[in-house]
Amino acid sequence: MPELPEVETVRRGLLPVLEGKTILKAEVRRPDLRWPFPENMAERLTGMRVLRLRRRSKYILADLSSQETLIIHLGMSGRMLIDGTATADFHSNPVLPDKHDHVILHTDAPARVTFNDARRFGAMDLAPTEQVEAHWLLGKLGPEPLGNAFNENYLVARFKGRNTPVKSALLDQRIVAGLGNIYVCEVLHRTGISPKRKAGKIGVDRVQSLVPAIRDVLNEAISSGGSSLRDYRQADGELGYFQHNFTVYDREGQGCTRAGCDGEIARVVQSGRSSFYCPVCQR
DNA sequence: ATGTGTTCCTGTCCGC
DNA sequence: TGCGGACAGGAACACA
C-alpha cells in the first residue's frame, strides 16, 4: 500500500496518537523485519515523548525526546493500526495480537499503535535525530517530489544521457524520492509518455511536463487518502486505507480513459515490475 | 557509472 | 477442495 501519498496519509492518521504523546510501553515481538531491529529498541522507545512526526519520502520519522529518531518504513505490506482509543479498552481489554503484529506502541493518547507487516519487507531503526538525514537508508534519497528542489531544470538534468526507460528512472529513489509503481504508471499516462521510452531521449518539454503531473497526481492522491482517514475512526481501527480511481494501474484490457483515445490498456513487465499503459496515446 | 535481474516474505487469486 | 504458479503498493544487492 505505501507510496508517498499512502505514507503521508498514515502519518497524518498517526499524529493524534503519537505527536506530543509519550510511549508508555513498547512491545517488540520479533527481532527483525527486513533488517534486525536496533539494540534494545523497546527500552529506547519506552518513556520517550514523540516531539514530532515527520515524513521523508516513504519513511515516517518520529523524533523522540531522547534525541533519537525512530525510522519507520512500511515496505510492501506494512500497516499502522490504531485501536484502544477508548480508555476502557486500552486498560482492560487487550486484543490478542495478530501473528503479523510485530511492534506495538502503547501511548498516553491513550492508544495502541501496531506495526503489522505480513511480508516483513518493512523496517524500523533508531538514529540520532541530528544525523538522521545521513542515515544509510535516507542519505542517497533524491528530492521530495512536492518540494522546491524538485523542478523542471533538475529533472531535465537528471534525465540527460540516461539510457534507462523512464519508468525505471522515475522509480529510482535517488532521482526523485517517493514515487512507486502505481503513481509512475499514472503520471506517464497523464503526460502521454510511454514507460518504455528512454529517459534521455524524451524531449525537454515533455520531461518538464512530468514535474507538474507528478505533483498533481501525488496531491490528488493525498487528498483522497485524507478523506479515507475517517475509516480508521470506525470500528475496525484501520488506518490509511487508500482508495483511488486509477486511469491505468491494474486496468489491463480495459479502455483508455483519455478523451478521444480508443486504446486498450496494456501490461508489460519492466525490470520485474508491471507497467500499465495505453499503447495508443502514450508514446 | 549504469543498467538489469534476483532476492527477501506471506497472502491471495486463478486455472486445472 | 487442493495444488501449483503468478503476482503484489519496495528496494538493497550482486553482477554484466
Task: Please describe the structure with a list of short key phrases separated by commas or semicolons.
2 domains; 22% strand; 283 residues; DNA-binding; four-stranded antiparallel sheet; alpha+beta; N-terminal domain of MutM-like DNA repair proteins; Helicase, Ruva Protein, domain 3; 7 helices
What does this structure look like?
- It contains seven helices and ten strands.
- It has helices spanning 4-18, 41-45, 87-92, 152-159, 166-171, 181-191, 204-228; strands at residues 23-28, 50-56, 59-64, 68-73, 78-83, 101-107, 111-117, 123-128, 266-270, 273-277.
- The chain has a four-stranded antiparallel beta sheet with strand order 1-6-7-5. Strands 2-3-4-8 form a four-stranded antiparallel beta sheet, covered by helices on one side.
- Strand 6 and strand 7 form a beta hairpin.
- The longest helix is centred in the last third of the chain and has 25 residues, at 204-228.
- The protein is elongated.
- It binds a DNA duplex (16 and 16 nucleotides) through helix 6.
Short description:
This protein has 283 residues and is an alpha+beta fold.
Helix and strand topology:
Layout: H1 4-18, E1 23-28, H2 41-45, E2 50-56, E3 59-64, E4 68-73, E5 78-83, H3 87-92, E6 101-107, E7 111-117, E8 123-128, H4 152-159, H5 166-171, H6 181-191, H7 204-228, E9 266-270, E10 273-277
Antiparallel strand pairs: 1-6, 2-3, 3-4, 4-8, 5-7, 6-7, 9-10
Helix pairs in contact: 1-7, 4-7, 6-7
This protein binds a DNA duplex (16 and 16 nucleotides) through α6.
